[in-house]
Amino acid sequence: MSQNRFDQVRLTYIGGPTVLIEIGQLRFLTDPSFELAGYHYMAGPQVVSKTASPAIPASTLGPVDAILLSHDQHNDNLDPAGRAYLAQAKQILITPAGAQRLDSNACGVPTWETVTLKDASGLDIRITATPARHGPEEVKAATGDVNGWILEWEGQRHGALYISGDTVLFEGLEEVARRYRIAVALLHLGAAYAQRFGSVHLTLTGAEGAQFAMMLGEAATIIPIHYDGWTHYTEGRDGIEQAFTAAGLEKQLRFLPFGQAVSIDI
Description:
single chain, alpha/beta, 7-stranded mixed sheet, 7 helices
């Protein structure tokens, strides 16, 4: 992508919640999860296992300008190999509570506040923390704080880039849809399940993703992430596709190939 062409973004889906985002000369990485298949951790009485290795290993990814970390308290969003990678980032953006638990290069960004990063050409990327709720209200205290992210810059023709973080559909996402014209939304889908909380889901279902897509409008492209590669997901690609088709929104849905950079107009 030409450094003077700012109406495109390059996305490389590494797996799980991990996406490399390249805008101008700036490189961003979402929730780093780099352990190989077979890694597992305990979530209360439940064993959560990783079933797919990252499409790109951390050792070949190189440094990034910022990590957009939705939260640090769950190992499917920040596993041990991902924690080791944090030192490769110039800055880590996370919730204020998460910043207190991480190293000094972590910046806590409260909901609706904005951090601006600039590349060598003078391109400013405005990164705003958006609300997220990692499950129904009754488990919020146990799951902890989560951020979503909005990325905006001059030269966008169609709207902002949005990353939901681990969240269900709630009034905070409705507010995101009211405040922003979103061109591309990276949604954490998969309807994640935690045994200790019973039958509730902790991330978006396909039906919720489709409902949110309706709020964003037909011009928004919906890109599912964090729906595969771990055993605690209850909905995969087929379920997501079925939900969007049932809602008549299948044309808005786009799945990224693993490990390949894709340029998307924005």
